[in-house]
């Protein structure tokens, strides 16, 4: 972090059903048969089996950008601009000269997208997962969209527990956040639910416990990568460190992801 560009995997979560607000905003602007994707950036593609929801910053502005014919993405303008430079977006004839030339179709704060149902690739929740709010999302990093894996990410787990506890305050339906958390990776020190175990051990009570969360994040990351074993999927039983890149490549080859640098 901080040294050179971060090499992320950008995952494509296809919209199945818009929140009421977005349904209104996209009407007449996006073809009925077009595909729209939320595009979170992740450093842990091997954990995608455990996706239970996807986070946006409620106060961050997002754009719905036309990627190609009948295909749109939801990311920050900053990320769309980066993607344009990385050739994911436009044919070179139409390359935008400024951010204002990006093919922006709809712009709205994250809070308007909350409650949208999306399809998360590899997730056990094949019925779909919901877009939920997370105050800790940074607009200045990645795509501004964060897919949530509470089994292996302490930030995601702490945020999700807070959303469930205070669903009314956050203006969400509790059941949007109450998806079952399945084990994805076995570790010698923290068992098969690394993030919940660490959150409990370090007595993290809310997403505001940033110091302990930073520590938990570091411990979870090191343990998962160097000592973790896959419990699910094609590479079940194999070491995370040796299959991470293979899972990433499979997601890219199937069209469910693309490389993204920031
Ligand atoms: B990771 P780095 Cl299972 N704001 O993906 C806040 N967090 C963001 C973000 C943003 N704009 N963009 C990406 N992220 C998160 C999975 C995961 C992640 C697991 C465990 C740890 C973990 C599922 N969430 O990250 O600061 C994304 O969450 C801990 C390092 O750019 C992304 O990977 O190094 C990670 O932070 C990128 O963090």
Radius of gyration: 18 Å
CATH topology: Isoleucyl-tRNA Synthetase, domain 2
Q: How many structural domains in the coordinates?
A: 1
Low-confidence stretches: none
Order of SSEs? EEHEEEEEHEHEEEHHHEHHEHE
**Average predicted local confidence, pLDDT:** 95
- Principal-axis shape equals globular
CATH homologous superfamily assignment: Valyl/Leucyl/Isoleucyl-tRNA synthetase, editing domain
Strand order of the largest sheet: 8-6-7-3-2-9-10-5-11
Protein name: leucine--tRNA ligase
Organism: Penicillium frequentans
Family: Belongs to the class-I aminoacyl-tRNA synthetase family.
Describe the structure.
- With 262 residues, the protein is α+β, with helices and mostly antiparallel strands.
- The chain has one domain (7-261): Alpha-Beta Complex (Isoleucyl-tRNA Synthetase, domain 2).
- It is built from 9 helices and 14 strands.
- The strands form 3 sheets. It has a 9-stranded mixed sheet with strand order 8-6-7-3-2-9-10-5-11, sandwiched between helices. It has a 3-stranded antiparallel sheet with strand order 4-1-14, with helices on one face. A two-stranded antiparallel ribbon has the order 12-13.
- It is globular, with a radius of gyration of 18 Å.
- The N and C termini lie close together (11 Å).
- The chain binds ligand A2H.
- Ligand A2H is lined by residues 1, 6, 41-44, 47, 136-138, 141-142, 144, 146-149, 152-153, 156, 217, 221.
- It comes from Penicillium frequentans.
- Belongs to the class-I aminoacyl-tRNA synthetase family.
């Amino acid at each position: 972090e901080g040294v050179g560009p971060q090499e992320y995997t950008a995952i494509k979560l296809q919209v199945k059903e818009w929140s009421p607000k977005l349904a209104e905003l996209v009407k007449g602007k996006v073809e009925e048969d077009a595909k729209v994707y939320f595009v979170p950036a992740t450093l842990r593609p091997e954990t995608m089996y455990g996706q239970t929801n996807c986070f946006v910053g409620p106060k961050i502005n997002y754009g719905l950008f036309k990627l190609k014919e009948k295909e749109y993405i939801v990311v920050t303008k900053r990320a769309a601009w980066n993607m344009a430079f990385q050739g994911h977006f436009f044919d070179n004839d139409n390359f935008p000269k400024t951010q204002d030339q990006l093919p922006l179709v709809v712009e709205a704060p994250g809070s308007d997208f909350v409650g949208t149902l999306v399809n998360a690739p590899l997730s056990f929740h094949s019925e779909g997962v919901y877009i939920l709010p997370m105050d800790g999302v940074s607009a200045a990093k990645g795509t501004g969209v964060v897919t949530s894996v509470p089994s292996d990410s302490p930030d995601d787990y702490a945020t999700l527990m807070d959303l469930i506890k205070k669903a009314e305050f956050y203006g969400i339906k509790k059941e949007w956040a109450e998806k079952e958390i399945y084990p994805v990776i076995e570790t010698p020190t923290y068992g098969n639910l690394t993030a919940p175990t660490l959150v409990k051990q370090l007595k993290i009570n809310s997403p505001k416990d940033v110091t302990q969360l930073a520590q938990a994040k570091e411990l979870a990351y090191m343990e998962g990568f160097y000592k973790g074993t896959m419990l699910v999927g094609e590479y079940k039983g194999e070491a995370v460190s040796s299959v991470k890149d293979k899972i990433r490549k499979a997601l890219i080859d199937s069209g469910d992801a693309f490389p993204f640098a920031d």
